Amino acid sequence: MSEYAGQERTEAPIGSLDDIKLLTDLPTEAIRELESNCRWIEFRTDDVIMERDDDARDVYFIVNGSVRVMNYVGDDREVTLAELEAGAHFGELSAIGPRGRTARVIGKDDSVIAVMSREEFLATLVEYPRVALRLLHQLADIIHIMNQRVSTLSTLAPRQRIYLELLRLAVPDPKANGNWLIEVVPNHAEIAGWAGTDKQEVALAIGALAREKILERKHKAFVIKDRSKLRMLASI
After folding, report:
1. Are 74 and 43 spatial neighbours (Cβ–Cβ below 8 Å)?
2. What strands, in cross-sheet order, belong to the sheet with 180-182?
3. For the chain, what is the mean pLDDT?
4. Confidence (pTM)
5. In whole angstroms, what is the distance from residue 72 CA to residue 45 CA?
C-alpha cells in the first residue's frame, strides 16, 4: 500500500508550520525555509497516512485536522494508541532510529500534513539544539504514556477498559447537578479501538450501564448519572 493516500501538492505550501509545537523555538526565517522544503498533502477522513512496517523515514507535521495512531494486539485487533491534533507531529522514531514504522496512522478527519524528509529533519535537530531537547522531552512523554497503555491493556478486562474510556471522555455537566457528560459520543468502533476490544463488547457494556441507570442516552450524548459507581466498576 502506498504511504501517501492523500492528494499530494507540489506547489507552494498550503499551510504554515508556525503552530507546530516541536518547532516553537525556530526563528521565522527558518520556519519559512522548512515550509518550502516540505511536501504538502491533504488527507481525507480514514485515509491511511502512514502504514506500520513501512521503511520510509519522513516526519509528518499536522497543520490542520487530526489523526489516529493505531497498532495491533495479536494478529488482527487494532488498538488506538493516541489521537494527535493540529500542531503535533509523528514519524520521528523512524527518522532518528534504525527501524521502520512501528504504528499505523489514519486520518481522524480531513487534514493537511507537511511531510519533511529524514535528512531535513536531522539537519534541523543538529542546527537547533533547543528543538532536539524539546523532542527528547516529547519522547519521554511518549514512553510514559505507552507504559500506561500497556499496563491498562494487559491488566484490565475489556469491560473495565471500556469503562475507563467513558470516564476519560466525560466532563462535568455545566448545570452543576453532579452528572457528567459525553457530549459527542464516539462510535463503537472508536471506543473499541481505545479499549482494545470489539464493537460488540462496547455495545454490551453500554447497554448494561444503561440498564443499571449508571448511564443515560440523551440524543447524541451520554449522561453519566453515577460516576462513582462507574469508577468502581472500572476498578479505579
Report:
1. no
2. 171-172, 180-182, 221-224, 215-218
3. 89
4. 0.75
5. 20
Strands 66-73 and 104-107: antiparallel
pLDDT in tens, 109-157: 999 999 999 999 999 999 999 999 999 999 999 888 888 877 887 888 9
- Dig out the grid coordinates for 30 from the structure: 527558518
Q: Residues near 67 by Cβ (< 8 Å), separated by ≥ 6? A: 49, 83, 84, 90, 105, 106, 107, 108, 111
> Do you know the residue count of the chain?
236
Delineate the domains of the chain, giving CATH numbers in brackets.
Answer: 7-155 (2.60.120.10), 158-233 (1.10.10.10)
Only one residue has cell 447537578, namely 177
Q: Which residue intervals of the chain are DSSP H helices?
A: 28-37, 92-96, 118-127, 129-155, 158-169, 188-195, 199-211, 227-233
Split at pLDDT 50, 70, 90, the class of 99 is confident
Range ranked top by mean pLDDT from 18-22, 71-75, 98-102: 18-22
3-state secondary structure of 2: coil
The phi, psi pair for 224, rounded to 5°, reads -90, 110
